[in-house]
## 1
Amino acid sequence: FQRRTFPRVIQSYTRLASTMAPQLKDPSLLKQNVCYVNGEWVSAKSGKTFEVHDPSTGKLIGTAPEFDEADTKTAIKAAASAFETFRHKTGRERSKLLRKWYDLMIENQDDLAKLITWENGKPMADAKGEVTYAANFFEWFSEEAPRIYGDVIPSSVPGNRVLTLKEPIGVCGLITPWNFPAAMVTRKIGPALASGCTVVAKAPGETPFTSLAIAELAHRAGIPAGVVNVITANANTPAVGQVLTTDPTIRKISFTGSTGVGKLLMKQCSSTLKKLSLELGGNAPFIVFDDADVDVAVAGAIASKFRSSGQTCVCANRIFVQAGIYDEFAKKFAEKVKTFKVGNGFEEGITHGPLIHDRAISKVEAHVRDAEKKGAKVVVGGNKMPELGPNYFQPTVITHMTTEMAMAEEETFGPVAGLFKFSTEEEVVKIANSSEVGLAGYFFSRDIERVHRVAEHLEVGMVGVNTGLISDPAAPFGGVKESGFGREGSLYGISEYQVTKMVTYGGM
Ligand code: NAD
C-alpha cells in the first residue's frame, strides 16, 4: 500500500467535511432516522435513540431509534396482521412487487452506496457493487415467486392421491450484520416475500441507515403495510432478540452473524421450536497447489482476502501454499498488497477503507502480535494507521505461519493475510478440515483429478476452485459444522421460508 497517498487522504477529510457530509444529509438521499413499522415511520415509544458513527472519521452520522421489547411486539403484530392477506397474493403479484423494489434499488444505487460507505467505510466502488449484488436478490426471487410448485406423489395405497403444497411459513424474524449492510438483509427478505411471508428485520446497530433506506424503497415500491418492518436497536439488541426468538407468532428466524450469537439464538428459539437458518462465522482455507497458475492464484487470494478490508465471512483466513511455489507466491502477493491505497472510501482511487470499530482493530492487532511472537515474519504492514483515522490498519502479509498461531484457529476479520507452507495434499486437507467452522474454502490447481478430489474432501458449505469470488444470488450460500445451517440464494434459499404440507386424498 502506498504511504505517499496518506497526506492526500488527510487533506481530503477537510473537503469531505465541507462537501460530502452536507450533501449526504439531504433527506432526498434516502437517509431515514426512524424505523419502518406497519408502513409508517416511527420512533421508539420511549423516545430513546442510539448514535451511529462513521468508522472512517469517528464522527457522528446520526441517530436511530432504540427499540425495546414493546416496540418489537408492535412490529411483530403488524407483520402477523399483514401475513393474513399477503400469503394469499398470487406469485405473480408478489413477483411484481419485488421487481419494482429491485428497479428502485438500481435507480438509487449511488445514494444507497453513499450510505453504505458512510456507515460501513468500504470504498464507493465496493459499495456500488454491493448495491447491485443486494438488488439482485430481489430480481432473482421476483423470478422465482411465480414458480413455487408442489408435487403429485404416487401413493402406496390403491386409490389414494398424495399432493404437496408449498406454503409460506409465516412471520419471520431477520437479524443481519454490518459487513454487508444492504446484501445481508435483501438476501433474506427476497425469498421470504417470494414465498408469501412477512418480516420483522432487525438492522445492525453499526449500520442501520442502509436497511432503513431499503425500507424507504419498499414503501415507494408499494409493498403493502406490515409486510416489511425494519427496526433498530443497539443497547437493547439482546432484548429485541429475545422477543423475536420467543414470540410464538414468529415461525422462523434467519440470522447472519457470529457463531456465539447464533448459538444463543438457537437456544432461545427452542422454547417455541422455530425454524432456523444460521449463517455464521468462517475460517476459510485458501489452498494453492504447486500445479496452480500462480498469477491466477495471487489474484484470487487478493480478492478473497482483502475485499471489504478482510471483513467478509467467506474471506480467506488461512492461506496454504505448497512448498514448490511458496516463495514465488509470497513475493507476488506481497507486491500486489503494497499497491493498495488505504483511506476514506469516498476518496477517488481508494481501494481499502477502515475497519468497522476499535474492537475489530484490537483483534487484528492481537493476531499479528501473536503470530510475530510465535516466529512468523511480517513482510508488509503490521500496524495501526492513526494518521488516517481511528479504525485503520495496514494491509498486512505475514509469512512463516504455523498452526499454533491464533490466526490458524480464529476468524481474523481484517486485512491480514497469513501464509502457511505445506508439503502434501493429504496434509493440507487435514489441516484445512481441522477447523470447527466450515463456511467457504478455496483451492487452486490445474490437475482435474485433484480438483474433484479436494472439492469433495473439504468440510465446507461452499468451494471456490480457481476463483476467490463465489457469491452469486443463483448459488446456494451457507455453511456446515459451526458455520451454521440453511442456505440463502438459489432455489434452496426459498425453501427455507416454506412449509411442505402433504394432502392425501382417499378413495379416488
Ligand atoms: P454479531 O453476531 O455480533 O451481530 C450480528 C447481528 O446480530 C447484529 O445485528 C447484532 O446487532 C445482532 N445481535 C447481537 N447480539 C444479539 C442478541 N443477543 N440477540 C439478537 N441479535 C443480536 O456479528 P458481527 O460481529 O456484527 O458480524 C460479523 C460476524 O458475522 C462474523 O463472524 C462473520 O463471519 C459473520 N457473517 C457471516 C455471514 C454468513 O453468511 N455466514 C455473512 C456475514 C457475516
## 2
Amino acid sequence: MRLKSIKLAGFKSFVDPTTVNFPSNLAAVVGPNGCGKSNIIDAVRWVMGESSAKNLRGENMTDVIFNGSGNRKPVGQASIELVFDNSDNRIKGEYASFAEISIKRKVSRDGTNMYMLNGTKCRRRDITDIFLGTGLGPRSYSIIEQGMVSRLIESKPEELRIFIEEAAGISKYKERRRDTENR
Ligand code: ATP
Ligand code: MG
C-alpha cells in the first residue's frame, strides 16, 4: 500500500488548494525552516482521524484551519484528502477490491467535522477501522517522528504492547471486541 497523493486546502499554511503527488516509493520533502514540511505530516495524521490538537502541534482542533497571514484573511474551513494505492489489497474487508482508497476530512470554524471514504460520507470510526492492522493510522508506527524511537525504548510495557499488537494484526480484533462489549 502506498500513499499516492495528498490534497490540502485551508489547512495550516496551505491556504490555496495544493496537490502533492508521490509518484514512487521514496519521496523527500525539502525546504527552508517554517515552509510547511511538518504541516504535511500533520495533515496525514489529521485526515486519518487524529483527535488530539496537541499531536497536531495546536491548542484547539480548529487551529488546523488557516488563520491568516500578512496579506491573507483567515479561511472558514480546512480539508485534506489522501489517496492510497491499494492494488496489493492491504486494506481488507469491504474496501479490499478497490485499487485506490481515498479518505477525506473537512473541518469548519464551528468545529464540525466531515469524513469521506471513496467519495461517500462516513464516520471517523469507518476511517480508523480500515487502517487497523495495516500499520497506518493517526498514532501508528508508520509515522516516525523525532524522539519517537527513544520514546518507544523508554515506554512502559503496556504502551509497547500497543505497537506490537498493531504490528501483529491483533489490534483490529481487540477493537471489535471492545466495540461488541460496549453495545
Ligand atoms: P522546520 O524545518 O523548522 O521543521 P517546517 O517546514 O516543518 O519547518 P512547519 O512547522 O510545517 O514548518 O510550518 C510552520 C509554518 O506553518 C509557520 O510559518 C506557521 O505560521 C504556519 N502555520 C501553522 N499553522 C497555521 C495556521 N493555522 N494558519 C496559518 N499558518 C499556519
Ligand atoms: Mg518541521
